[in-house]
Amino acid sequence: MTDTVAVIGGSMTKFGQREEWICELLAEAGNACLTDAGVPPEAVEHLYVSNMSSGEFEGQTGIMNALAHDLGLMPAYSQRVDQTSASGGAGIYAAWQSIASGASEMTLLVGGEKMTHRSTAEATDIIASCTHPAEYKHGVTLPSFAGLTARMYLDRFDAPRESLARVAVKNHENGTRNENAQFQKEITVEEALDSPIIADPLRLYDFCPVTDGSAALMFCSVEVAEEYADDYAIVSGIGGATDTHVVHEREDPTTMGGVVKSSEQAFEMADLTPDDIDVAELHDMFTILEFLQMEGIGFAEKGNAWEHAMDGRTKLDGELPINPSGGLKSKGHPLGASGVAQGYEIYEQLVGEAGDRQVSAETGLACNVGGFGNCVITTILEANQ
Amino acid sequence: MTMEAYRYENGSISYPGHPRGRDGSNPVETIDLSEYTGEILTWTTSTATPPGVRAPNTLAIVEFDVDGTAVRALGQTTTDDVEIGMEVTPVYTEELREPGVGIKAADGPQEWDGYRFEPV
Question: Which of B63, B72, B74 should we substitute to test contact with A (largest number of A Cβ atoms within 10 Å)?
Fold first, then answer.
């Protein structure tokens, strides 16, 4: 048993529209992670595969065993982790548990999803199947939850519509510095505000795209990490929590209880506060989610996260850079991969390998949201030196 | 068909009902929300709808006052011309979306009828 778990390597594939199917995407990221970490396949004792719906999207199940075979990891224990779009974060939680418990000495986590062979409408329906049947029959989608919540937020806190557009502009700008991001294109506030309505008051540029891709991280104890790397990251805090399945049953629909509780757990474990975080990756599947997470985590007071978007605090050169990778908004959102890719971005920032988007950071946070805040994982990573 | 909500031992009400309430308490009675009027808390008009769903699809979260206890429901509206604070009443609809066109089977456990909200 160890209370100090390290991340010693990571990788991500190019996100976007890919020809490869799910098993090939997972193998690409997993193989690159083995190389990056310098870990031989026979050293991996546990393999976790974060994925929401390979059966529904592609008709392919059993992907954890397929990946173990493709990477020569047998007889490693393997397990698929599904927590809808928080599957990646849940995979980090499972990998952390496997090392912290002593059950595994070396754990590989790979997250991935293959989505773009389906139409946007079909992909939207597969994702919406995570809603309650009483919601599903009305044709509710995750984007429509975002529209409902955004209208309530803007009305209640007198926030300008432009503030949401500024989230999209910032994350698109960051994405141009990430060669693996789906979009390599800057946009203007005017373009965001004039784009087609998707879920009023939200428009096209308030939403992440449908994406194929995969990402991976390698976990071990700090003692083992010292054998493999000079620079690595330490999982100093992690928390997971759920909120109601039925979104309208929440006391305050603009508060994501899973974000609040999981971040409280992570900060308590790390003995840190929101002020100690240097960089964050938040689950900006929709622009409004960046505000709700900032407030739930404690980066902003309730009802004023939008002011931080307006004054530039969350830009790459701001006081608290948020989504330097481009976020889900620009980097893309291959469901099971996203939480792992968030962790990979924080890892890259902490070990100084983030290239053109490198910020000064010793401590970073990733918040991965499933459903519309239904289940949430918050992870805090710190540089070892 | 009714728009059945549950009242729990602690007095709270939820729609839809659950085997246990938020605090773990058991349900003690059912309440038909279709007999009440409610107020729109927020709404959206979705243009990117899944297979079998009308486009555009205007949805609202409505809050009902049941003898002093608030309970909410989400549903389609009968018109796109809605506003926050508008008073609405549930109206039965045989088919809210086309069965079996999306990922869920037409003859499975998913119900396809229900109530839309109509301005009073």
Answer: B74
Residues 108-127 of A with CB under 8 A from B: 120-122, 124-126
Q: Are B55 and B70 in contact (CB under 8 A)?
A: no
Q: For B71, what's the count of Cα atoms within 13 Å in the CB-facing half-sphere?
A: 26
Task: At A79, list the tokens.
Answer: 């397990």
Mean pLDDT value across chain A: 97
Residues in chain B closer than 8 A to A198 (CB atoms): 46-48
List the domain boundaries for chain A. 5-118+210-228
Kindly report the nearest CA distance between residue A267 and chain B, in angstroms: 26
Q: Inform me whether the C-beta atom of residue B45 falls under 8 Å from chain A C-beta atoms.
A: yes
Q: Any residues with CB less than 8 A from the CB of A40 and at least 6 apart, and which?
A: A34
pTM, two decimals, is 0.97
Evaluate whether the domain defined by A5-118+210-228 bears CATH number 3.40.47.10. yes
Report pLDDT digits (tens) over A311-329: 999 999 999 999 999 999 9
- Whether B77 contacts chain A with CB within 8 A: no
- Give the model's confidence band at B1: pLDDT under 50 very low, under 70 low, under 90 confident, else very high: confident
- Which positions in chain B touch A285 (Cβ < 8 Å)? none
From the CB of residue A255, how many other CB atoms can be counted at a distance below 10 Å? 15
User: What does the pLDDT read at residue A2?
Assistant: 55
